[in-house]
Task: inverse folding
């Protein structure tokens, strides 16, 4: 007689809400008549992300004491719940941004896959066994591969999807191989038991474990798009549908960082002397490569992609600090960063729809005067990315720097400050295009006399992103408290 | 017949099966790389994977043997055959077009595996692989794996089905689109359809 384990449905509720929505959206593709398909599936998906957000909020409130659920496959704690809040919020915004984009083909399927990707990430935020971690990574990755290539008739989409599939599978293979080695060294799949086995049996210098840890970190670095594992990022962000690029930039990065910290702090705390140094090196590489490569880009989506690599470097500084302060810093950083990422890509999407082709920096000339709301919003996002005060980006960077400083790595802080200075060039370059250049000269043939009507939902999403970016500066204390309680549930 | 004789017959049988499986394994392996028709290579690969499954059975890992047949010899090979059928005559044999770095890489990989096997045999002969692993009798048996799927790894087991379902949906989405030519695509773009 097999007694199946107790299922904590409440802990699973944020994931289940989105899974239900994914199934409903798929059914809508078949049952709902053509013209209604888009509003129905978009509304349902939006409701799913909002429901998931609400469930995660309740879960946060009721998970003060962290404990395993479903025989340790999941961890029910505030760390996961706060990450789920960020992910669900990013998904809801992505739905709003997407609404104006799709017209005919695969409308419901698009939303179903978006919900499925969100569900996978939200599941992964809680995953705490090597098995569920790998499955969660594949879950959201497969959905994203398809979303990138969903307009398969367009060569750029197909290229993005294929590149993402191949490099993503490469990263997953590293993760899987590393997990197998770690299992071989410790004999368990659960992160907490791995940590205990390493501590009790003195395995921290076991070659099998160390190689396994290194390979897992490589696999995760692909998902975090940390240099030198970032090569797919610009191509995929450029080729994918723009709302999906924004969603990937925000949510994939968020879940990869949250997961990495969970793995490192729970299972590999004994190996901190190894991975802190490794992550610091990767952080420097990301800061240098991301910022220098962004300088020479002309396509706005590529600039944003390299900027996301450099932001991975900033967040990695905080992870490498190996402290509760660092964990708090990453969680806080992710809130304004996700909003800015989705918002910036949304503005690019709006411009792209007006032009009918990819947006280069020159295409933004004078856009701030044509569309003041979007222009000012993009201005604020650029300042936020660069880390100006009055945006959450400032406090995020400040926290990341102070975590590295507290760890005694002044040199890392100096490199981070230098990288910020370099990044001003391209962030302010976009702002210059928006407001200080006239559209007549540069735009010419690409002017927008017959511009489509304003996309109200996209504008709402952009305004919401601005609100989050700015509010996270002023409401810093409540957010830091949230992040503090969340970080408290990991054994820093 | 005495028990001893039965054991002896059993041993002979094991050896016979082993020799047969190994011969099939090597023979079909050679066929995979020497056939010029990719379809024949794929069929030979099925034989190769099947004989590997027999070897796993001889090592008393029933679950791995079954998975080998179901997943590799079954599902993966069907996909191989589909791809070959889809590409038709368009795929060249890999050695057409002179030496490439692929060949050098395969040679290095093959050599590495050979060294790996030789070292393992040498270590076993030298007695340095004699640690007895602390494993239960049931470790790796199909019933134990089934029990784990329904207890410790219940969630992972269920989630696997979701991952496969999403992949299947994706396959359908990417496969079932109305094909348009480049020109039509450009015209649609110009007409602002993407907008």
Result:
């Amino acid at each position: 007689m097999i007694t199946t384990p107790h299922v904590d449905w409440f802990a699973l509720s944020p994931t289940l809400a989105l899974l239900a929505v994914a199934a409903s959206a798929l059914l809508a593709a078949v049952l709902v008549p053509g013209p209604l398909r888009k509003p129905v599936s978009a509304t349902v998906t939006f409701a799913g992300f909002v429901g998931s957000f609400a469930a995660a909020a309740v879960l946060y409130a009721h998970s003060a004491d962290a404990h395993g659920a479903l025989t340790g496959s999941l961890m029910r704690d505030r760390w996961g719940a706060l990450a789920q809040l960020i992910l669900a919020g990013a998904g809801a915004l992505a739905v709003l941004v997407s609404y104006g984009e799709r017209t005919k083909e695969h409308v419901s399927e698009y939303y179903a896959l978006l919900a499925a990707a969100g569900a996978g990430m939200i599941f992964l935020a809680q995953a705490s066994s090597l098995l569920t971690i790998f499955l969660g990574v594949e879950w959201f990755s497969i959905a994203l591969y398809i979303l990138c290539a969903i307009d398969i008739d367009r060569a750029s989409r197909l290229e993005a999807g294929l590149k993402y599939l191949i490099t993503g599978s490469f990263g997953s293979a590293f993760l899987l191989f590393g997990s197998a080695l770690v299992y071989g060294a410790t004999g368990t799949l659960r992160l907490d038991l791995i940590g205990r086995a390493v501590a009790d049996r003195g395995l921290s210098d076991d070659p099998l474990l160390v190689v396994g840890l290194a390979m897992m970190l490589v696999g995760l670095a692909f998902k975090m798009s940390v240099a030198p594992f970032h090569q797919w990022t610009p191509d995929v962000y450029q080729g994918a549908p723009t709302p999906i690029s924004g969603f990937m930039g925000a949510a994939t990065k968020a879940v990869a960082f949250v997961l990495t910290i969970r793995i490192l702090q729970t299972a590999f705390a004994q190996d901190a002397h190894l991975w802190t140094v490794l992550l610091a090196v990767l952080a420097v590489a990301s800061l240098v490569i991301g910022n220098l490569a962004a300088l020479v880009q002309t396509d706005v989506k590529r600039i944003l992609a390299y900027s996301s690599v450099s932001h991975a470097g900033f967040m990695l500084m905080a992870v490498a600090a190996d402290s509760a302060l660092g964990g708090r810093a990453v969680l806080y950083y992710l809130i304004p960063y996700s909003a800015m990422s989705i918002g910036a890509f949304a503005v690019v999407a709006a411009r792209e729809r007006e032009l009918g082709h990819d947006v280069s920096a020159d295409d933004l000339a004078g856009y701030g005067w044509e569309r003041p709301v979007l222009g000012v919003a993009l201005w604020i996002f650029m300042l936020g990315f660069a880390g100006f005060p009055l945006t959450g980006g400032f406090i995020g960077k400040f926290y990341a720097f102070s975590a590295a400083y507290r760890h005694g790595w002044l040199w890392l802080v100096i490199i981070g400050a230098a990288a910020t200075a370099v990044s001003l060039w391209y962030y302010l370059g976009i702002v210059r295009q928006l407001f200080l250049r006239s559209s007549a000269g540069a735009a010419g043939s690409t002017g927008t006399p017959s511009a489509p009507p304003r996309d109200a939902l996209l504008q709402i999403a952009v305004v919401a992103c601005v609100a989050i970016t700015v509010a996270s500066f002023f409401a810093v204390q409540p957010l830091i408290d949230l992040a503090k309680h969340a970080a408290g549930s990991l054994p820093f | 017949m005495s028990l001893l004789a039965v054991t002896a017959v059993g041993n002979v049988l094991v050896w016979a099966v082993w020799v047969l499986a190994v011969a099939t394994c090597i023979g079909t392996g050679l066929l995979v790389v020497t056939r010029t028709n990719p379809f024949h290579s794929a069929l030979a690969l099925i034989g190769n994977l099947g004989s590997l499954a027999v070897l796993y059975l001889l090592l008393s890992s029933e679950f791995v043997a079954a998975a080998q047949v179901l997943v590799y010899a079954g599902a993966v090979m069907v996909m191989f055959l589909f791809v070959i059928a889809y590409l038709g005559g368009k795929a060249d044999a890999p050695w057409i077009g002179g030496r490439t770095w692929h060949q050098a890489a395969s040679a290095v990989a093959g050599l590495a595996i050979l060294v790996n096997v030789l070292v393992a045999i040498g270590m076993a002969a030298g007695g340095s692989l004699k640690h007895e692993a602390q494993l239960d009798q049931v470790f790796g048996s199909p019933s134990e794996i089934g029990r784990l799927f329904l207890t410790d790894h219940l969630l992972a087991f269920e989630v696997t089905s979701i991952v496969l379902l999403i992949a299947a949906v994706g396959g359908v989405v990417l496969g079932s689109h109305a094909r348009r030519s480049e020109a039509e695509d450009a015209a649609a773009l110009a007409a602002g359809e993407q907008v």
In short: Chain A touches chain B through 46 residues (CB under 8 Å). Residues 441-449 of chain A have pLDDT under 50 and may be disordered. Residues 155-186 of chain A form the longest helix (32 residues).
